[in-house]
Automatic annotation (TrEMBL):
The active site is at residues 183, 190. Pathway: Carbohydrate degradation; pentose phosphate pathway; D-ribulose 5-phosphate from D-glucose 6-phosphate (oxidative stage): step 3/3. InterPro entries: 6-PGluconate_DH-like_C_sf, 6PGD_dom2, 6PGDH_C, 6PGDH_Gnd/GntZ, 6PGDH_NADP-bd, 6PGdom_BS, NAD(P)-bd_dom_sf, Pgluconate_DH. Transmembrane segments: none annotated. It comes from the Bacteria. The gene is gnd. This is 6-phosphogluconate dehydrogenase, decarboxylating. Pfam families: 6PGD, NAD_binding_2. One of its GO terms (biological process) is pentose-phosphate shunt. Substrate binds at residues 102, 128-130, 186-187, 191, 260, 287, 445, 451.
């Protein structure tokens, strides 16, 4: 009997996805470029299962039912193209190649088109949930050649996480690179959520002087509120974890954060599409600042940096901080969905925004209770432009606003860096301001570059130029627009 699907790549994610598929009754053929890892897997974690080993790409192809379905769980970039180049001559028309790594979505768009021209169907599937999700049920975001979806749907939806209502956190996203675009935004939101939690942690630790036991208890309590989420849950666990000496382990971890690029890609795409993804961009820059450890130590000495303790009732501050975190988190998702909407319209993907929220409801790193509310918001109004305009989220933001302002103002006053919470409230203030000072900015642009401006007393789309000094010309700049 031949295999239902082949998987290339036996790192942690690949192995766990294979075991997950096996548990759901699918026959999987496993291959790794270093073939000794195939034997290690078959004699280790896969021992006693129905998993089949393959020792070359030809062997992999020969052991699969047609149309062949081959999923790559390898490092993004050139490695994916190398495997595709080696696989294509071995495949037949209609066979399917799936990239389950963190590819940059333009690569998935390119691969979909290039492979279609050769008769091969390509799927770019974002997979989220880490090691645990891959083993027990990840969130999966497939896009690419839609004709391949019915072939892989039974497998993907079987292995995916399920909502409490039993709905799989996997459905078709859209053509070309849509799946990997949505996964990229997911990762960007993940960056934002993590930084927001870190800002709350520093406010508690350095501002309020709370102990790790107190912070552990607070995050555990927060996880029973609207903040119920995977990242809040694991934060409570981390803050309560002690090393062999009985001291908080996290206190001994060097404060320099790594990154693999998906947050950066999200910010770059937001700039390209003109979407103010301020919170997520700040979370990427916060990691960049953290990397300057030695410089920060010297700068701290140079400026004599201290953090002023936050006075007042600590319980009240903790409650205010919870509201500030919740409101900021809403803005992060709102900006993320603004980016998804713009990309969908520009690329003609026709994405279902409520369905996207469902994909993230369980199984992934950003899974949280209020994703159900996001799905409801888009179900009630599929044309919703700004998530904060939905009655539920508008009510939460308005309710949290006084505490949010109080926390951000106090953090700035005390010297606690809060780039994401501050950028979130600044975005909301700008987005809800009917008249911004950009009229002056346009006048400046016209003054020095003859870039023209529109007028409030004239129809939109009609542009004017003023010779502000009497020394300039009357010719407007029409050669470029950034």
């Amino acid at each position: 009997m031949k295999g239902d699907i082949g998987v290339i790549g036996l790192a942690v994610m690949g192995q766990n996805l294979i075991l997950n598929m096996n548990d759901r009754g699918f026959k999987v053929v496993a291959f790794n470029r270093t073939t000794s890892k195939v034997d290690d897997f078959l004699n280790g974690a896969a021992k006693g299962t129905n998993i089949i080993g393959a020792y070359s790409l030809q062997d992999l192809v020969d052991k699969l039912e047609k149309p062949r379905k081959i999923m790559m769980m390898v490092r993004a970039g050139s490695v994916v193209d190398e495997f595709i180049g080696q696989l294509v001559p071995l495949l037949d028309e209609g066979d399917i190649i799936i990239d389950g790594g963190n590819a940059n979505y333009p690569d998935s768009t390119r691969r979909t088109k290039e492979l279609a021209a050769q008769g091969i169907r390509f799927i770019g599937a974002g997979v989220s949930g880490g090691e645990e999700g891959a083993r027990n049920g990840p969130s999966i975001m497939p896009g690419g050649d839609e004709s391949a979806w019915p072939e892989i749907k039974p497998i993907f939806q079987a292995i995916a996480a399920k909502t409490p209502q039993g709905e799989p956190c996997c459905d078709w996203v859209g053509r070309d690179g849509a799946g990997h675009f949505v996964k990229m935004v997911h990762n960007g939101i993940e960056y934002g959520d993590m930084q927001l939690i870190c800002e709350a942690y520093q406010f508690m630790k350095d501002g309020l002087g709370l102990s790790y036991d107190e912070m552990h208890r607070i995050f555990k309590e927060w996880n029973q509120t609207e903040l119920d989420s995977y990242l809040i849950e694991i934060t409570a666990d981390i803050l309560g974890y002690q090393d062999e000496g009985g001291e908080p382990l996290v206190e001994k971890i060097l404060d320099t954060a790594g990154q693999k690029g998906t947050g950066k890609w999200t910010g770059i795409n937001a700039l390209d599409l003109g979407i103010p993804l301020t919170l997520i961009s700040e979370s990427v820059f916060a990691r960049c600042v953290s990397a300057f450890k030695e410089q920060r130590v010297e700068a701290g000495k140079l400026f004599g940096k201290t953090i002023t303790p936050v006075g007042g009732d600590k319980t009240e501050w903790v409650n205010a901080l919870r509201q500030a975190l919740l409101a900021s988190k809403i803005i992060s998702y709102a900006q993320g969905f603004m980016l998804i909407r713009e990309a969908s319209e520009v690329n003609d993907w026709a994405l279902n925004y409520g369905n996207t929220a469902l994909l993230w409801r369980e199984g992934c790193i950003i899974r949280s209770a209020f994703l159900g509310n996001i799905r409801d918001a888009y179900a009630a109004n599929p044309d919703l432009v700004f998530l904060g305009a939905d009655p539920y989220f508008k009510g939460v933001l308005e309710n949290c606003l006084p505490a949010w302002r109080k926390v951000v103002a106090k953090a700035i006053e005390c010297g606690i860096a809060m780039p994401c919470m501050a950028s979130a409230i600044t975005f909301l203030d700008g987005y809800t301001t009917e008249r911004l000072p950009a009229n002056l900015l346009q006048a400046q642009r016209d003054y020095f570059g003859a870039h023209t401006y529109e007028r409030t007393d004239k129809p939109r789309g009609e542009f004017f130029h003023t010779n502000w000094t009497g020394k300039g010309g009357d010719t407007a700049s029409t050669t470029y627009d950034i």
